[in-house]
Amino acid sequence: ILSLVYSAGLRISEVVALKPGDVDTERMCIHIRQGKGKKDRVTILSKKAVNLLASYRGIYLPALWLFPGIVPKRHISARSVESFFKKALEKNIKNLEKFSNIGLMTTVQYAGSVKEIKRFLEDRGKSVFIEKNRKTGYFGHVLGCDFSAVNSLENKVDCFIYFGSGRFHPSGFLTEKPFFALDIERGELIDISPEIRKEIIKKELSIEKAKGMKDFVIYISSKPGQMHPAKAGELKKKLETKGKSVLMVSADMLTPEKLLGIKCDVIVNTACPRLREDSSQFKKIILNPEDVDKL
After folding, report:
1. Tens-digit pLDDT profile for residues 90-130
2. Distance of alpha carbon 111 from alpha carbon 116, whole angstroms
3. pLDDT one-digit tens code per residue, 165-183
4. What is the residue-wise DSSP string for 2-13?
């Protein structure tokens, strides 16, 4: 179940409602019936999930539902899947003994479980803080480039917990607070603070290097939701007052090839902030808008 949630980008409620015929291993896809927005759609099926499903089907022989519940004519409930989180937290609760105030975050697939996890921790004496994502409206929901659901909690909590699968989403949240990832597939609460600290240091070094650079390119994405020309204009003025030479570049997706022939020491990115992670590919310093004030 958890492998399908993560690899196919499905909500728990969508996975538990799958029927065996919804999974097409030949075309490597999954048919979602009446899913998000009460609409049907098709999504990818990973090779790892195919192998896991083959083993699962060979043992459990599902008929009506891919994941049947205790009552044969009903599928397993989403609440039953939420118990995985609780078991993993219970197993690792000692690691949280010295923390009283906890901030929670997750991805959209598990957003429906946030309040249940909050209650679970509060029953064990913790004060738990969650905020709504400005774009999606889900509590505790973080995107790869949007941490509005947790940014305001920085001064309220002793630590943060991300629950879900993978490290892509939590690795983008650069906090000085202790940061744990609840890996529900392995049932482990992992301290990822050292990884986050390394990213913070890399960011600080990039800012220091950029102070001595002359030629700056401000990247404006043409993608809906990532296009911020007004912000780019403000950044241009700030950089020019600092004596920098500034060129503004607009593109659907920025690639090293699109900068060929352009004098550029530093890219100031106004689109998805995760572009910074591609700095080695560009062989340029990449800054985000908030970094410009630190130059």
Report:
1. 888 899 999 999 999 988 878 888 888 899 999 999 999 99
2. 10
3. 777 778 888 999 999 998 7
4. HHHHHHHT--HH
Phi first, then psi: give them for residue 119, nearest 5 degrees.
-65, -40
Residue 213, token pair as written in the block: 């650079």
- Strands in 127-129's sheet, in edge-to-edge order, are 127-129, 101-106, 159-164, 179-183, 188-191
The strand ranges marked E within the chain are 23-24, 29-32, 41-44, 101-106, 127-129, 159-164, 179-183, 188-191, 215-221, 245-251, 266-269, 285-287
Cα–Cα dist 280/173, whole Å? 20
Alpha carbon of 43 to those of 40, 76, 143, 194: distances in Å?
Answer: 10, 21, 19, 35
Would you say 212 and 267 are in contact if contact means Cβ atoms under 8 Å apart?
no
DSSP state of 156: T
What three-state secondary structure class fits 222?
coil
Q: Is 80 exceeded by the pLDDT of residue 184?
A: no
3-class secondary-structure state, position 139: strand
Helix or strand or coil: residue 295?
coil
| Residues found in the chain | 295
Residues 136, 161 contacting (CB under 8 angstroms): no
Name the token pair of 100: 């009283």
CA distance 239 to 100: 42
State the DSSP code for 141. B
CB 287 within 8 A of CB 210: yes
How many Cβ atoms sit within 10 Å of the Cβ of residue 181? 23
Return the number of other C-beta atoms located less than 10 Å from residue 72's C-beta.
9
**Bridge-based pairing state of the strands 188-191 and 179-183:** antiparallel
| Closest-CA residue to 162 (of 154, 153, 173, 152) | 173
Q: How far apart are CA 196 and CA 232, in angstroms?
A: 28
